[in-house]
From TrEMBL:
The gene is AROG_3. This is Phospho-2-dehydro-3-deoxyheptonate aldolase. It is an enzyme of class 2 (transferase). Keywords: Amino-acid biosynthesis, Aromatic amino acid biosynthesis, Cadmium, Chloroplast, Cobalt, Manganese, Plastid, Transferase, Transit peptide. It is found in: Plastid, Chloroplast.
């Protein structure tokens, strides 16, 4: 496969080492340059069975000839940011569809989800770091203010890495390979890149041509995301105004008005200091993509060797994660992931044994590299308080460097009286509260949040300030897989997280002053 060309590495790049964290280099598992196809010698779960292997091979050859969607240098930059999150210097916001679909593909849907992520991001950023900005508000000289605010603002805006579950999140694992309706048994729907959700034999038969369509849709999505991120749509003043509009029309707006106004005041000060909407810091963001590493044939076809390091990167996304159903220590998915150099996530439920988690981390990150591994917990609030402390202690005792992130969605799926799957906003918020409480208790760092969400006004999760009820679910239930937070619920959750981050920040500041 052809080497991957690289853009210049930014001058501010500062790779972190184990010494930076005061933790040891691990040598329990060998570090080797794996063949990207070595996973084929292992047992693979959740892979579709294609009826025509010749057509499949032709499609894979075509994918191998296509350009990479992302660069290795971009993945390394994300790894740096995740390393910051591991020590409490950044907070990951990861969100997007449960499963992208061909039917809903369009600029409006992409824009609306991106917009909500921006709104959430500015709330989380200022909720956690606003005291830094206000500490400079007394400066009167514009030139002096610009000189001093610029580096602080750079650190402030670097606080929050945006990572979308977008531009590749198609394939979904299934607990049962078949689905039965009215006595008819057909293969389960596994995502639009594999088959269709229409219930007939032709639609449910895996079609390799869908892999090419998924690639092309991912390229189109990523192209639009890059344009939004760098073309002025992400201007902070615009995003702040969106948030002010939200709190004015929210039934619980009084709770969040103060924070929204403080954000607006801070932006006004920055503008007075010379950082107007024309400044790149104020109208651009870094944005990365991620998805579950599930369809290994597709992922291998998009793996490229970096020409600057000789390492392999899966260029279908900047970050990939291994799911609850495919994280077997001796399985094909773990084998594939240990051979690529992208930042990796591990989905962890209450079923995870602490010793197994340590072994999995050592296999996937034998050099104990900061930012390489993100552990994404999905347990439900009650299980979180019981199980998470043991995992944190085991990881700490082993000297492992990881970033802890909460997925409060998957542990809270229930069936509504109408038969639809849903999630309770209150349960989601409770799990996040438990996540922060446990990290406070253990002295570790809550590094981020991972959400299934959309910018559309859907009615898939119950609750929130606009009170979606069981009776409302059928009105706008559009998901192809699991229920998602709508735009209002997502932003309300961001304000709640921001309040928690701000309290954590103020406790840290108070402790420093006492010291």
């Amino acid at each position: 496969m052809p080497p991957l060309p690289q853009p210049p590495i930014p001058s501010h790049s500062h790779p972190k080492t184990q010494a930076h964290f005061g933790l040891p280099l691990l040598h329990r598992y060998p570090v080797s340059q794996l063949d990207p196809g070595s996973w084929k010698s292992k047992k693979a779960q959740q892979l579709p069975e294609y009826p025509d292997p010749v057509e499949l091979e032709s499609v894979l050859k075509t994918l191998e000839s296509f350009p990479p969607m992302v660069f290795a240098g971009e993945a390394r930059n994300l790894e740096e940011r995740l390393a910051d999150a591991a020590v409490g210097k950044a907070f990951l916001l990861q969100g997007g569809d449960c499963a992208e679909s061909f039917k809903e593909f369009g600029g409006t849907n992409i824009r609306d989800t991106f917009r909500v992520l921006l709104q959430m991001g500015i709330v989380l950023t200022f909720g956690a770091q606003l005291p830094v900005i206000k500490g400079l508000a007394w400066l009167s000289s514009s030139d002096c203010a610009t000189f001093l605010v610029h580096p602080c603002l750079t650190r402030l805006l670097a606080y929050l890495p945006y990572v979308g579950r977008m531009a590749g999140q198609f394939a979904k694992p299934r607990s049962d390979p078949f689905e039965v309706k009215d006595g008819v048994k057909l293969p389960s729907y596994r995502g639009d890149n594999i088959n269709s959700d229409d219930f007939d034999e032709k639609s449910r038969t895996p079609d390799p041509q869908r892999l090419i369509r998924a690639y092309l849709q991912s390229v189109g999505t990523l192209n639009l995301l890059r344009a939004f991120a760098t073309g002025g749509y992400a201007a902070m003043q615009r995003v702040s105004q969106w948030n002010l509009d939200f709190v004015q029309h929210s039934e619980q707006g009084d709770r969040y008005t103060e924070l929204a106004q403080r954000v607006d005041e801070a932006l006004g000060f920055m503008a007075a200091a010379g950082l107007t909407t024309d400044h790149p810091i104020m109208n651009t963001i870094e944005f990365w993509t991620s998805h579950e590493c599930l369809h290994l044939l597709y992922e291998q076809a998009l793996t490229r060797q970096d020409s600057t390091t000789g390492l392999y990167y899966d260029c279908s996304a900047h970050m990939l994660w291994v799911g609850e159903r495919t994280r077997q220590l001796d399985g094909a998915h773990v084998e594939f992931l240990r051979g690529i150099s992208n930042p990796l996530g591990i989905k962890v439920s209450d079923k995870m044994d602490p010793k197994e988690l340590v072994k999995l981390c050592e296999i996937l990150n034998p050099r104990n590299k900061p930012g390489r591994l993100t552990i994404i917990t999905r347990m439900g609030a009650d299980n979180m308080r019981i199980k998470l402390p043991h995992l944190i202690r085991a990881v700490r005792q082993a000297g492992l460097i990881v970033t802890w992130v909460s997925d409060p969605m998957h542990g809270n799926t229930i069936k509504a009286p109408c038969g639809l799957k849903t999630r309770s906003f209150d349960s989601i918020r409770s799990e996040l509260r438990a996540f922060f409480d446990v990290h406070d208790q253990e002295g570790s760092h809550p590094g981020g949040v991972h959400l299934e969400m959309t910018g559309q006004n859907v009615t898939e999760c119950i609750g929130g300030s606009k009170t979606v009820t069981f009776d409302d679910l059928n009105s706008r239930y559009h998901t192809h897989c699991d229920p998602r937070l709508n735009a209002s619920q997502s932003l309300e959750l961001a304000f709640a997280i921001a309040e928690r981050l701000r309290r954590k920040r103020m406790r840290s500041v108070g402790a420093l002053h006492k010291g």
